[in-house]
Predict the structure.
Amino acid sequence: AHGPPSGLPYAGIQLRLGGRDIGPALGPDDYVEPLSVETYVETCRKLALKHGTWVHIASNGWDVSQELSAKLKDLGLHAVLKPREYYPSQGIAMHVGSHDEVIAFLGEIQILRNANAFIGTASSNVNRLVFYLRTGDGKDSSTSISLDEDYLSRPI
């Protein structure tokens, strides 16, 4: 397993790498710019101070995950991410590759679902899925932070 140590509180963060966004006010060719790593660092630092010193980083970008991990380590936080071989072979958002990559992705959904706090973006389908799984489990919606818009601003 590649998640935080069992039984310890942790925050889960899903890095949005940008990509196409088809929302009610956007057309199919609109592109969503990724948020800065610093935005995630500041939010994650605040939540992790409340919810423990562990942070699980979920992303399909190895380099950006490494950058975030290093910045969190500088703050005294412990970052956990999946091993390099489980990142999509194409390194792009929404790429589904090998069986192992799919299993790692589904495992990350479960890790984010069970986190004490979740940081993501409501413009991401994956992040909205995690939000609804968390609230369906009875977690307080205030423990799921969207960095770009309200999770409930889009229809299911």
User: Anything to note?
Assistant: Residues 99-114 form the longest helix (16 residues).
